[in-house]
Amino acid sequence: PKPKPKPKPKPKPKPRPDAMMLRLSCLALGLAGAGAFAPKRMAPARRSALRAAATDAEAKPWALIFDCDGVLLESEGLHRTAYNKAFKHYGIDADWTVEYYDDLQNRIGGGIPKMRHYFGEVAGWPESKISTPEINAEEQEAFLNTVQDTKTQMYKDMIAEGVAPLRPGIRAVVEEAVASPHRPYLAICSASTKAACLFVLDNLLGKDDLLQHFDLVLAGDDVENRKPHPDIYELAAERLNVKKDQCLVVEDSLIGLQAAAGADMKCIITTTESTRDQAFDGAISVVDDFEAGGVTLKTLEELVGFKADAAAAAAPAAAAAAA
């Protein structure tokens, strides 16, 4: 008898468009996987938005780039509290005052660089549960990373308790930008670690799907040099494929302003309690917050030099040329 032909293998099912887009979004954000943001069942509105995003290949006319801490949320005080709790946890004789942390915050970007400066140049390496004054360079880095990891977890615990809401006016501007026919790219560039940054964003913006509208999230881990170096903003312009003069950065500190200026980008400052009295020379505008300053999407378009009327008039000619 003739041997029976082997059955043809069944083709593997193609991933659903929403799941595929979610994985791509996570890769673009630098996430290890979709688990942190993927709901078990995706709402129809979110599925439609993702499918629309998949087919929207048009380049956006400009980019609105936010810092995270101090801009999206008033959280610098929480960072200081978390550092002091981590110091106490390991028996480290250090307590950063409001004044000292404000000074650090306006000179040095990133938590590990702050601690490296403090222990390496100011206070000396401490006698603690995880260190001695005689530790070598490799042990110093291990010490800094251990304290930073603990601080990050303590900070995330405070954020999860809901103690840091969005700053006034942020939600309104983001929603206005999303609904605009001339929608800009939306990006976040934070000096924080990616773990802390994404946790904060998911808690603040993820619960009502506002986070899905951001095109890019970069953190201090994504670049070699943190603010005040311009690396993170230059990388954002490169990833978004937008000219630097078409980018508007929202910052709250001098080192953030220096980073934006170093990248040849315009910068608007929203001050915090610790930066309200500082001189932000070079900023295109300085307000207490978007709500108090009456900042709208139109305000930001004017600051970056985008003219919606001119863009609308040019659209038919561009479409005809493409055809």
Care to describe what's here?
Strands 3-2-1-4-5-6 form a 6-stranded parallel beta sheet, sandwiched between helices. Residues 11-57 have low confidence and may be disordered. It has 323 residues and is of the alpha/beta class. The chain contains 12 helices and 6 strands. The longest helix has 24 residues, at 137-160. The relative contact order is 0.13. Helices cover 46% and strands 8% of the residues. It has helices at residues 17-29, 44-55, 76-89, 98-105, 111-123, 137-160, 170-179, 194-206, 231-240, 254-262, 297-304, 308-322, and strands spanning 63-66, 185-189, 216-218, 247-251, 266-270, 285-287. Helix 3 (76-89) packs across helix 6 and helix 5 (111-123) packs across helix 6.
What percentage of the residues does DSSP assign to strands (E)? Answer: 5-15%
Report helical residue fraction: 40-55%
Query: What structural class do the secondary elements suggest?
Result: alpha/beta
Number of β-strand runs: 6
Summary?
The protein is α/β, with parallel strands linked by helices and 323 residues long.
Secondary structure elements and pairings:
Elements: H1 17-29, H2 44-55, E1 63-66, H3 76-89, H4 98-105, H5 111-123, H6 137-160, H7 170-179, E2 185-189, H8 194-206, E3 216-218, H9 231-240, E4 247-251, H10 254-262, E5 266-270, E6 285-287, H11 297-304, H12 308-322
Parallel strand pairs: 1-2, 1-4, 2-3, 4-5, 5-6
List keywords for this structure.
6 strands, elongated, single chain, alpha/beta
